[in-house]
Amino acid sequence: MRRPRSRPPRAEAPATSVVYGTNPVLEALRAAPASLSVVLVAEGAEAGARVAERARALGVAVERSDRAALDRLTDGGHHQGVAARTLPFAYAALEDVLAGGRPLLVALDGVTDPQNLGSIIRSAEVLGAGGLVLPKDRSAGVTAAAVRAASGASAHLPIAQVVNLVRALEEAKRAGYWIVALDGEGPSRFQDLPALDRALLVVGSEGSGLRPLVREHADFVVRIPIRGRVASLNAAVAAAIGLYALAERLPAPTQTPDS
Predict the structure, then answer these.
(1) 140 φ, ψ to 5°?
(2) pLDDT single digits (tens) 182-206
(3) Which secondary structure element, helix H or strand E, spans residue 161, and what is its range?
(4) Are 38 and 61 in contact (CB under 8 A)?
(5) What is the C-alpha to C-alpha distance for residues 179 and 105, in angstroms, rounded to an integer?
(6) Which domains does the chain have, with CATH numbers?
(7) End-to-end alpha-carbon separation of the chain, Å?
């Protein structure tokens, strides 16, 4: 009996995401309309007419939907009768992020919660970082959940996805960045750092923190002092504190956020 010929696995099409809620959709339309394939508006949505008018003015297709369909599309999320399908997220090239000229960057070492990723994207953009670096494996990607948690910031912040984070840190060093890693057992505090002209903050995973090899490639390993009874901070909160502490010590960006 002849065995059936095995078929090679089919390559999966790039996944699209969904942005939902009035403000996130309006922000996506303002910041990156080319990233949206269609805006979906339910009958009777409070801001539906305004969102649809804005989308059409920007050349984005608009389709009528119903709330039950949007409930299914957003997995029961609070969509307010408005959603948008996006094209696959366009990651930036690492060399472009490094060449952007901004004094502050951030890299994540194994942050797997998309809510934490979105919060970090938002903090990084608000605090003037010029870009974010993510590992391709064992890390959350820029999905719909992360985009929503970022509240529109993902449309403004260049985000690079790299195969090897350690190699990316080495490239950052060659581009003139000092690597500052956050670690609860770090020997230094932010106020102990010397004057820096450029810095890349590395934040470890929610559970195990920094991998040893990543830690070894840091120029400085700093801790955030813990004065309460809880032993550690959430990764997104720690990242926000670290970004603020570094931003206060670095030169102000020469570029405006919208440039």
Answers:
(1) -65, 145
(2) 998 889 999 999 989 999 999 998 8
(3) strand 159-162
(4) yes
(5) 10
(6) 17-86 (3.30.1330.30), 94-249 (3.40.1280.10)
(7) 67
Provide the CB-side half-sphere exposure for 182 (13 A, CA): 30
Instruction: Give one word for 163, left, alpha or beta, with left for phi > 0 and alpha for psi -120 to 50.
Output: alpha
pLDDT tens string 61-119: 999 999 999 999 988 989 999 999 988 888 999 999 999 889 999 999 999 999 999 99
Nearest CA to 82 among 124, 25, 129? Answer: 25
Its pTM stands at 0.76
> Which residues have a Cβ under 8 Å from the Cβ of 253 and sit 6 or more positions away?
102, 103, 104, 128, 130
How long is the chain? 259
Residue labelled with tokens 């930036």: 92
Question: Which residues touch 19 (CB under 8 Å, ≥6 apart)?
Answer: 25, 28, 36, 83, 84, 86, 144, 147, 148
Phi and psi at 176, nearest 5°, equal 100, 10
Hey, what are 60's tokens? 């984005």
Give the separation between CA 207 and CA 141, rounded to whole angstroms: 18
The number of beta carbons lying within 10 Å of the beta carbon of residue 182 is 27
Helices (H) and strands (E) in the chain, counts: 9, 10
Q: Quote the tokens at residue 197.
A: 């002209």
Contact criterion met (CB below 8 Å) for 121 and 111: no
Q: Is 217 helix (H, G, I), strand (E, B) or coil?
A: coil
The whole-angstrom separation of Cα 237 and Cα 110 is: 16
User: pLDDT tens digit string along 139-183?
Assistant: 999 887 787 788 778 888 999 999 999 999 999 999 999 999 999
